[in-house]
Amino acid sequence: MAAMQLLTAGCRKTPKKKKKKKKKPPAVCRSSVSLQLKTICVSMATRRVVQVYLDLLSQPCRAVHILLNCNKIPHTVRTVALRKGENRTPEFTKLNPMNRVPVMEDNGFVLTESDAILKYLAAKYDVPEHWYPRQPEKRARVDEYTAWHHNNTRPHAAKVFILEVLVPAQTGSPVDEGRLIRALSQLDDTLDKLESMFLRRQPFLCGDDITVADLLAVCEVMQPMGGDRDILKERPQLQRWRSRVQSAVSESFDQAHAVLYALRDRRKAKL
Amino acid sequence: MAAMQLLTAGCRKTPKKKKKKKKKPPAVCRSSVSLQLKTICVSMATRRVVQVYLDLLSQPCRAVHILLNCNKIPHTVRTVALRKGENRTPEFTKLNPMNRVPVMEDNGFVLTESDAILKYLAAKYDVPEHWYPRQPEKRARVDEYTAWHHNNTRPHAAKVFILEVLVPAQTGSPVDEGRLIRALSQLDDTLDKLESMFLRRQPFLCGDDITVADLLAVCEVMQPMGGDRDILKERPQLQRWRSRVQSAVSESFDQAHAVLYALRDRRKAKL
């Protein structure tokens, strides 16, 4: 996994750590650090922090990235570039035989699946309760959305991006317009449900405040933006929701999406 | 929803209730009671119990049914026959605009998605902790499986049943052998992962004891049995796991699967 880019963020500093930082460069910083993401390396020698293996072009990875950053949970990011097949190296396969990102490691405990990682982090790191409420009915609303998400928002927004950006980039062939139209129609149905079911009478998907469900959802609906397509363009209700999410997580939203914006801008520049 | 069959099960009796039962037949028992499912009607006049809307030919519905019965959570079952389109009646659509089962109602709180319902019931009804452990790492293992389940065990076992049983029954056309072979191959891959990832070093999917994850999974791998296909036939490791699940939930396993067994037997009799 030598090619992986290592980043650390949001680490609470102690005097002890500061001292060590001055004496010696961080042992874990093996490769370049992205200034764009405004993250800083600090020494991990004295304590273990959460490690996450992410590709920020992957929607569920961005959701995990946002939760960690906006809650200042001490963590290290190891970038696993899917386009370079870094998820298929023997080292990564050992970590996650499913070869998927995100993966989280917390003091030896390895966990896959963004849904599970977000809920684990919320429980373990004592983030503000609204992220994953403890009250059974409120929690059930989050579990209900996340279960629904896997077969709705997740595949449908992803498919538009795959057809419009990934497949043409990988094969050199033009966009399959017929399949794209069908995918957009399926996505429309999902967006309708997000509006009429989940946001019908409340500002966030699962209630009055932001939860991990909003993170999973917003990162999916942002994905077609990589192909310069804003799928919420004609949906003011969902636009307002996205703005609320963006405000609630402040700069961590754009930090997580920097790679997607860069992709969009590169594609625009080529045209 | 007049056509729905109403069943009640596992209600804890109090002396007060017994008295009322003697005086008056249960107000909620509007239609036939299935003796096969060994359920009994009791009066619901004095208290509200969980109501679940199920079709026991649906895998996630069976998982909910098993959890309720083997933990003796007081509940009422309303059968929503998908084959009769009872999930599309105005009354049911009002309850769940997604037109899906299972749906749970607990004292006015309506919840969809089996994954969320199982976790809510485990939290709210104080079932033995092993069903959905509170310790963060153990709980995360259950959340990890349930997230994975939605795009693996769930669609792949279902597809085999759809191609082999549902489509021929609905269209009268023979089984599409090419599609069935591809579906069986995808399912094989999922079963490999269940063995090598989840059951590698433990008796149940998420640890040493049964959890809601095992219920969701076992109900899926049972589904092709409706077409007389035991997909675990040549998989002793998964067979042992299924037996463990079956033992752990005792008669509630066969109660939930009675409708599937009946379908299999009817199909066999026709051949």
Structure explained in plain terms:
The structure is a homodimer of 271-residue chains. By secondary structure, chain A is α+β, with helices and mostly antiparallel strands. Chain A folds into 2 domains: 5-127, Glutaredoxin (3-Layer(aba) Sandwich), CATH 3.40.30; 132-270, Glutathione S-transferase Yfyf (Class Pi), Chain A, domain 2, CATH 1.20.1050.10. Helices cover 51% and strands 8% of the residues of chain A. Chain A has 10 helices and 5 strands; from the N terminus they run βαβαβαββααααααα. The first copy, chain A, has helices at 15-23, 59-70, 90-95, 114-124, 136-149, 153-171, 177-198, 212-222, 236-249, 251-270; strands at 5-9, 50-54, 75-79, 103-106, 109-112. Chain A has a 5-stranded mixed sheet, covered by helices on one side. In chain A, a hairpin with a 2-residue loop joins strand 4 and strand 5. The two termini of chain A are 34 Å apart. In chain A, 45% of the residues are buried. Mean pLDDT of chain A is 86; it is low at 1-46. The interface between A and B is medium-sized, with 29 and 28 residues.
Q: Could you list some keywords that capture this structure?
A:
transferase (chains A, B), about 10% strand, Glutaredoxin, 10 helices, alpha+beta, globular, 5 strands, 2 domains, Glutathione S-transferase Yfyf (Class Pi), Chain A, domain 2, disordered N terminus, about 270 residues, glutathione transferase activity (chains A, B), five-stranded mixed β-sheet, homodimer
